[in-house]
Amino acid sequence: MSYCSNCGAEIPAGAHFCPSCGTAVTGDGKPAETAQAAAPQSQGETVAASAAVLAPDMQLASLWRRFFAHLLDLVFAMVAYIVIGATIAARTGNTTENGFEMHGAPAAWTLLLTYLVVLFYFSILEAMPAGKTLGKMAAGIRVANENCGKASFGQAFMRNLLRLVDFIPFYLLGLVLALASERKQRLGDRVAHTLVLSTGASAGGRASGRKGDAKDGKKGGEKKYYHSIGVGSDIDV
User: Fold this and answer.
1) 3-state secondary structure 89-123
2) Which of 28, 72, 174, 222 is the most buried (most CB within 10 A)?
3) What is the SS3 assignment for 175?
4) Does residue 170 contact residue 199 with C-beta atoms inside 8 Å?
5) Can you give the pTM of this predicted structure?
6) pLDDT tens per residue across span 203-233
7) CA 80, 123, 52 angle in degrees (round to 5)?
8) Do 15 and 25 form a contact (C-beta atoms < 8 A)?
9) For the chain, what is the radius of gyration of the CA atoms?
């Protein structure tokens, strides 16, 4: 039986991520970055290889933060719906004192165009190097491929196209699949091979509060900290 050295939770046999905090772990329960740092370095190891060993694994974003990000992105969806609906209503004579009211083809076009705008809003922004929509930026999370790198446009498009299936009913299917997944992947993430990672330990998180650590480093002489986007813990060398 092993335990996560980051939060102390019990690690199930064969698990690669802590079910409590989402930190990547090795078979003995140690965070992956710790096990890598402890490995003996071969003679003539390059600076790039050393940096790769020191780079910590990413931390999975909590479902609460993902839900918060989605609520914020729904504001964009509502704005898109109102703008598109008002434009079509004005052209088809379906405006009212309170806005617009449409049926049949005008209503169908409004819903279709709104869906396409929102689909490409998510897909394009999640395929950018930052991997963040406006909502994800505010929530401190990002979309990445399964190697924690930048997701391609095809991956971002697929995960958002399947959002329609995950939404059945009221995102219940997506929630159940994410809870049952070791890496918190809903159907769209599983098919697209993507992850949603936390960026809370980057420069906007733990790295911003390192004044005290900098003082400790001066006293200790050899104390340095390495940070990476979405780091679950620091490496002290």
Assistant:
1) HHHHCCEECCEECCCHHHHHHHHHHHHHHHHHHHH
2) 174
3) helix
4) no
5) 0.63
6) 333 333 344 444 444 444 433 333 333 333 3
7) 140
8) yes
9) 22
Name the residue among 78, 190, 90 with its Cα closest to residue 135. 78
Measured distance CA(14)–CA(106) in Å, rounded: 54
The domain limits of the chain are: 2-39+48-54, 63-198
- For residue 31, the model assigns a pLDDT of 54
Kindly report, residue by residue over 104-118, the tens digit of the pLDDT. Answer: 999 999 999 999 999
Dihedral angle, C-alpha 49, 194, 234, 28, nearest 10 °: -80
Give me 226's structure tokens.
Answer: 């390495």
Q: Measured between alpha carbons, how far is residue 156 from residues 49, 56, 127 in Å? A: 30, 24, 6
Residue 9, pLDDT > 60, answer yes
Structure tokens at 2: 């092993």
